[in-house]
Amino acid sequence: MSYLEEVSVGVHERLTTIVSTKGQIILPKTIRDQRHWPAGTRLTVEDTAEGVLLKPVPVFPASSIDSVFGSLPYKGPALSIDDMHEAISREAKRRARD
Mean pLDDT, the chain, as a whole number? Predict the structure, then answer.
């Protein structure tokens, strides 16, 4: 028994799938490939007025500046913006040589 059915609607193809007794569905490979969703991808499921919306779960949880400020230790004097730009330029030149 095939769980997927292709129906052509104008320019777009509409794919149909079946909900299993466990509540599982099969997402067509073409959609998984287009979305770069390999096996094991975590998705959020949102019920909307239009239907069900699937979105990948962010790799990193949402955070604020205050929650991460100071998480990377720096021991030394504060650097000015000019000092930071100079350090970035030096590193870019070093990487270009390597």
Answer: 86
